[in-house]
Design a protein that fits this description.
The protein is α/β, with parallel strands linked by helices and 453 residues long. It has two domains: 10-240 and 434-452, Rossmann fold (3-Layer(aba) Sandwich); 249-431, Rossmann fold (3-Layer(aba) Sandwich), CATH 3.40.50.2000. Helices cover 43% and strands 13% of the residues. The protein contains 19 helices and 13 strands. Strand 9, helix 13 (314-318) and strand 10 form a beta-alpha-beta unit. InterPro entries: UDP-glycosyltransf_plant (IPR050481), UDP_glucos_trans (IPR002213). Keywords: Transferase. This is Glycosyltransferase.
């Protein structure tokens, strides 16, 4: 094995080609490299410019671009999920399945200790033949993965989750239908459903890795360990360090116009796209609060520029206290600004942890399946956030629902706000305690070494 001679590991990583997977894998690679281990991260060719600034150890973390094979119906420019609709993502999965010969050649040449992966169901078998340990390294929570083990095929079975799960993680009916979709639609090429792909990847791997801790998700980890009968390895919370220590002057100047802890910051990650109607409901809900706000979202579906989708008269009515921005913003630096008081998030796993580590009141509005489970983890299990109510069947929210959730979190006389703030303070102080994060990752490395014995 490559890492046995000098006690340093060599790890190849092949995440699903979505920025919500590539970035967490690179963050984990930085943690390994900080300890002297060698990482080879397989990426789409054009992603190097985006990921490069996040690579803190370029001498130990090597990007290995891989060509995307041609697939009928998939445009030649497509490299990540940002380039396709959600309906066409199965074509990208098929394309990455076709990289198997190239990956086999790479692994045969490098002979790493481990291959970290998530959606590629064929990788554990390939790794086993090459005598390489495979780790299914998940970018979602153990609680989310647990829903793959729902007790029955009906929507109602999925709503309540598997036996042994707390009732607090009960799903909406419309979310359960998304899980049902995973079980029924067979994809081109592999002939597998998404659930079959995931279950094969999970069950055939040598271990499952999560960037979480037992203090937050212990019962869900134990549930998975009992179901899978294999090691569940926890890397601890991995939150990126800001690329720069200071916030861009234009954002700092704008935020500094308001009172401390008064601004609501809203961001939904790199992929969430609302319908125009829901986008407008969201903005009108923010307007109703009377609080200043900074909203950073992708333009809604069918709209090229975010300004084209603003509700009539909205810009004029809120111009002194609100910004709606259609591009990337430095989320971590904004969350640290003393005048930002609330983080309104989609509850992607990375944003969930960034919110947990911040001093902001958390308001959650999830969009896709795993985000709903993360949202329930925060709002009901841990009671450190307020969730916006949605329609059970249609998944729609209203401006009144947005307004109510924000006020529950932000209003000075809100009992809910006081409760979630106290709980949040307790968890943040615990997670940020000296040595907590580094000790967890050191233990993660030692548990990996144990797999090689």
């Amino acid at each position: 094995m490559a890492g046995t001679g000098n006690n340093k590991l060599t790890i190849v990583m092949y995440p699903w080609f979505a920025m919500g997977h590539l970035a967490p894998y690179l963050l984990t690679a930085n943690k390994f490299a900080e300890r002297g281990h060698k990482i080879i991260l397989i990426i789409p060719p054009k992603a190097q410019s985006k990921l490069g600034p996040l690579n803190l150890y370029p001498d130990l973390i090597e990007f290995r671009p891989i060509s995307i094979p041609h697939v009928e119906g998939l445009s030649a420019h497509v490299e990540t999920t940002n380039d396709v609709t959600i309906q066409d993502q199965h074509l990208l999965r098929h394309a990455l399945d076709l990289t198997q010969p190239a990956v086999q050649s790479l692994l045969s040449d490098l002979k790493p200790d481990f291959i970290f992966f998530d959606l590629l169901h064929w990788l554990p078998g390939l790794a086993r033949r090459l005598k390489i340990k495979s780790v299914h390294y998940s970018v979602v929570s153990p609680a989310s993965m647990g829903f793959l083990f729902a007790d029955g095929p009906e929507i109602e079975d999925i709503v309540h989750g598997p036996t042994g799960f707390p009732a607090s993680i009960k799903l909406y009916t419309h979310t359960a239908r998304d899980f049902k979709f995973f079980e029924t639609i067979k994809e081109m090429g592999s002939g597998l459903t998404m659930k079959q792909r995931l279950m094969t990847a999970i069950c055939e791997s040598d271990a499952i890795g999560f960037k979480t801790c037992k203090e937050i998700e212990g019962p869900y980890c134990q549930f998975l360990e009992s179901k899978l009968n294999k090691p569940i390895l926890l890397a601890g919370p991995i939150v990126p360090k800001p690329q720069t220590s200071t916030l861009d002057q234009k954002w700092a100047d704008w935020l500094n116009k308001f009172k401390p802890k008064s601004v609501i910051f809203c961001a939904f990650g790199s992929e969430a796209v609302l319908s125009k109607d829901q986008f407008q409901e969201l903005l009108l809900g923010f307007e109703l609060t009377g609080f200043p706000f900074l909203i950073a979202l992708r333009p809604p579906s069918g709209v090229d520029k975010i300004e084209e989708a603003l509700p009539k008269g909205f810009e004029e009515r809120t111009k002194e206290r609100g910004i709606v921005h259609g591009d990337w913003v430095p989320q971590q630096q904004i969350l640290k600004h003393p005048f930002v008081g609330s983080f309104f998030t989609h509850c992607g796993y990375g944003s969930m942890w960034e919110g947990l580590m911040s001093h902001c009141q958390l308001v959650v509005l999830p969009h896709v399946a795993d985000q709903y489970i993360h949202a329930r983890l925060l709002s009901r299990d841990l009671k450190i956030g307020v969730e916006v109510e949605k329609g059970d069947e249609d998944g729609l929210f209203t401006k009144e629902g947005v307004h109510m959730a924000i006020m529950a979190a932000m209003a000075e006389d809100s009992e809910i706000g006081k409760e979630v703030s106290a709980n949040h303070d307790k968890w943040r102080e615990f997670l940020l305690s000296k040595g907590f994060e580094s000790d967890y990752f050191d233990n993660f490395v030692e548990n990996l070494r144990g797999l090689l014995e």
